[in-house]
Amino acid sequence: MAIKKKRSFYDTIQEYFDDMDKEIDRWHEPMIERPSWNHKTSTMEPLKDTRVTPTEVIVTVDLPLTKKTTLRVKPVDENTLEISAQMRRKVTFKEMGITHHEGEFEKFQCRTSIPVPVQMKKIDIRFKKGMLEVHIPRKGKR
Amino acid sequence: MDDIRIVEKESVAPGATMLFGFPDVGLVGVIAASHLVDELKMSEVAYIDSQQLPPIIVLHEGLPHSTIRIFAGHNLVLAAAETPIAADMIYPVMDSLIEWGKNKKVKTMISLSGLPVQERQDMQELKVFGAASSADMLQTVESKGIETLTEGYMVGPQAVMLLRCAQLDVPGIALLAQCFLNYPDPEAAAEVLKTLDQIAGIKVDVAKLLEKGEEIRLKARDVMRRTQEEMSKMKKGQEYDIPVYVT
């Protein structure tokens, strides 16, 4: 008869935390990653970053090959911004070395969530060398 | 380290300078490496094969290649990666490459990378800093007019390279150009390549790199995105921290 080793209280707790860690990891991993482009709408998703300072939220978006005049920064609601910009020329998969997909891109588009309450009406936009910087003052902060 | 195999396709002459260009902040290293291979017409001489790495290959002109390869040409050896190295694989991968380089009797190891700065968007000129594996090498860096990093944390492949070079008594230098943290930065890659001329007499024309800067930024978005994930896992943000010194 096999002798079953008695598990210590510590082992039980450790196992509980291990299971919890696995569950958290599972929630963080998307089922299938989606591409950063959509050839049906000819759009690419740009790289973006959000930084919160004591007085404002700064959203930066990398928009290479875009025209400044086509840049649109639109609040969708109290904590979401929609950003889009037209490219100066169409970019094809082929010129990026990809031959197994067909399509061309002419626009960047993305939405970004603002993590703290902000004054969306006081947006300040700067655009330099294809890099967009959006400054939004935080609510109740000077 | 036994699980990491370096497969040689061609022999490498001793006395070369070994460079490292891996995906990291601003993709400075990998953009610089890609430009070096292109501009100096370097050819693949070896590659890393390991079951410990994710099952990824990269196809070039229809043929499979490892994502971590070694190129050679002009008395240079360049180890470069086309996808970010997972945080827990940095030590074994770097250990294998450094041991390989030592066996090939390379004279110096130089890592090409970046140093993120928050004000990058407003900067007209980008500084390149140097860090070294020994007091002698630090002096060499300073004597070439390159400002050195004297205190602070360093995270990533270049950190392992410097430590191992110090342990194995191989001259090692890390060149770090001020750059964006989360965005591909071809201008920073150009600056680090210009400094390579200063430190090791390696001349590379960076005009094409700067001219194609926006195309590179567009094309490098996906690699940057994946690099951000790995940088977060390896606590890259610790480079901003102010250390508590134990002397």
General description of the model:
The complex is a heterodimer of chains A (142) and B (247). By secondary structure, chain A is mainly beta. Chain A is 14% helix and 41% strand. Chain A contains 1 helix and 9 strands; from the N terminus they run αβββββββββ. In chain A, the strands form 2 sheets. A 5-stranded mixed β-sheet of chain A has the order 1-2-7-6-5, with no helix packed on it. The mean pLDDT of chain A is 85. Chain B has 247 residues and is α/β, with parallel strands linked by helices. Helices cover 35% and strands 23% of the residues of chain B. The radius of gyration of chain B is 17 Å and the shape is globular. The mean pLDDT of chain B is 93. The chains are: A mainly beta (142), B alpha/beta (247). Chains A and B meet through β3 of A and α7 and α8 of B.
SSE layout:
The complex is a heterodimer of chains A (142) and B (247).
Chain A: H1 9-28, E1 37-38, E2 43-44, E3 47-52, E4 56-62, E5 72-77, E6 80-92, E7 104-113, E8 124-128, E9 131-137
Parallel strand pairs in A: 2-7
Antiparallel strand pairs in A: 1-2, 3-4, 4-9, 5-6, 6-7, 8-9
Chain B: E1 5-8, E2 17-21, H1 28-39, E3 43-49, E4 58-60, E5 63-65, E6 68-73, E7 76-81, H2 90-103, E8 108-116, E9 128-132, H3 135-143, E10 147-148, H4 157-168, E11 172-179, H5 186-200, H6 207-211, H7 213-219, H8 221-233
Parallel strand pairs in B: 2-7, 2-8, 8-11, 9-10
Antiparallel strand pairs in B: 1-3, 3-6, 4-5, 6-7, 9-11
Helix pairs in contact in B: 1-5, 2-4
